[in-house]
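Q: Is it fine to ask for two folds in a single conversation?
A: Yes, each is treated on its own. Send the first.
Q: Here.
A: Result:
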Amino acid sequence: MIRKAVDLILKSEFPVIICGQGALYSMAWDEVTELAELLGILVGTTITGKGCIPETHPLSIGVVGGRGGANFSNSIVDKSDLVILIGSNTDSANTYNWTIPSRGKTVIHIDISETETGNNYDSINLIGDAKVTLRELIKEIKGSGKIGKKNIILDRSAFEDRLSKERREAVNPLRFIKELWSLSPEEAVLIADPGVSAIYTAAFYKAKKVGRYFIFNYGLGGLGYSIPASVGAYFARPNSLIFSLSGDGSFGFSVGELETIRRVNANVVIIIFNNGSYGWIRAEMKARGKDIVGTDFSSPDYVKIAEGYGLSAYGITNDEEISDTLKRAIKNTPSLVEVIVEPEDKFVPPVMPWSKRFL
């Protein structure tokens, strides 16, 4: 089966690797990068596989699929003639209902679970630990004497620059994520709740190094996860800066944990994207042509709430305030930053099929 997979890879003109969470569990990032560089293969990840390759790497296309995948990265998967899935459960969210990749693609599926391999795609299945299996693939490719690089050129700078410079009535979330990226240390851990927090982080915050530095709970979609999870991340990595990216809809579920964060003096920056609504539900209603009902609510003074718990607290209402405010929040942890943004139905994030503007 290894030889059959290698034969497909070497004959392919436009292969793409997609890493899921299993590649992180296996710590297979060295092998992923080596395979990609050996043949010049582009690498994407699912939202939970983020960190399998540095996203500053010239072969990285970022997150793909229905959660965090922009049309830019998804279109690359669509153009490919071979998809190498590594440690991915190929659920509906990761694949956008099994269209990224489409069911007609030639697929090699590497996974330790016999249940997962071939579950949703007619694939060549390599059942085993991702790291060990990739090592065998690399060994076979090197021994074949047929190594030739796929001359694929990737440039996503124009795509990102256009979106980050777009002026909004409130803060541009993409501009915020890019500023956050530029100010964050390499070892920073990011934990994101569903909604604006997770989608823009997944799509536009580039992993600076390999490993598990991103935690998303999109599988369950539970609101209010990131703030208490940031406490756990702090105890796991007390020397790292922890970012909890939440929303105003999520904040009310776990506001009491601000007391814990202050009591243990955690090195945590809580970021609340405030759009005055359950924005994801609102956008889904609009996308389906439904009346928007029951999604909007008033916004309490989040800065005062955080200060009441003893945290340093700041507010950002426009793009010009982002950099200086983030610097102060990072310097004075534990802290909270309220970021005023528009609901998802007004500034549509890269979620299929809501928007075609994320080219």
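Q: Second one now.
A: Result:
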Amino acid sequence: MTSLFGLEPGALPEETRQLRQEVRDFLAVELASGGYRPVSDSWIIGCDPAFSRKLGARGWLGMAIPKEYGGADRTPLERFVVIEELLAAGAPVSAHWIADRQIAPGLLNHGTQEQKHRFLPGIATGECLFAVGLSEPDSGSDLASVRTRATRTDGGWLIDGTKIWTSGAHIAHAMVALVRTGPAGDSRHEGLSQMIVTLPADGVEIRPILSINGAHHFNEVVLTNVFVPDSMVLGEIGNGWAQVNGELAYERSGPERLLSTTLLLRLLAARDDTDPRTIGRLTARLWTLRQASIGIAVQLSRGSAPDTAAAMVKDLGTYFEREVIEAGRATGVEPDLASTDLFTRILAEAVVQAPTNTLRGGTNEILRGVIARSMGVR
């Protein structure tokens, strides 16, 4: 039986098998030598720029970036394999995650030659880190209502506004911000543009938002009269809504939407007090969601924009993550972030992150609206 995309269910091309083993071998050595500490939700809370640079040196960042821009010129499916292994091992990848996942494709699709040559080589080596400025204090997942405004000035634009939940802005070298440059129109989707704000910059204040455990992953970014030259406009003025939606397909469909709690699931499966039927049910769900994510990766590699399918994967994947956490809690183990027992600590990290699972990348309510609209029922 083959899928609609010509792959066996859950399978990847044979040529990716050696790459997968290379990544596993690398991770085994790094773990044994103390090169990284496994964490749950590693693409959000696992920040280690030095580890990211190690991946870049091996050609495992910017894998789908053409060689002329410093990338490895490999396929999205090869990148998928590397990401799977990193997430399943709980490796710290959040430092480079946004740059590699969505900024690089955005630059390739909409950037100028100057922008590509300036930023893509650094993304591929892990030396250029990005944040993305989408949500705002009064906008959340309703991106069409953003209030951050860019006003025309001599040689560029002046940006005023606030972005929130901006992951990694405190370590980023640049941020791609969605701003309003013109009237919203009847659809509210008009008049939006994307601009690259290099960091640090005059007028940019980055305020930490601490998690319940005191960790710092998110930020509020306040922009006051921040100058962005015309050369740092990404894509076309007024085309921001379409550009962002294309990038969100990468954000919503990737394996991180179902593998954030895989390390917890693996530890759960190794316990004697876990019901085998629970592990079987969760593994079957994981396998199905994985095949859907692979299918979207194939479509993206062909130049398609599977926005609705990506929304479905994100919606179902984040609920799956919650189910894994609930299964972990059912063991009766008391979560403890300071525990030396790996299962106890990973469970605690997953519990702390759980409230954000169905929020990041667009709330599930917003995603279901996207799906309903595509079906003609909204």
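Q: Anything structural to flag on that second result?
A: Two points. The CA atoms of residues 42 and 92 lie 5 Å apart. Residues 1-10 have pLDDT under 50 and may be disordered.
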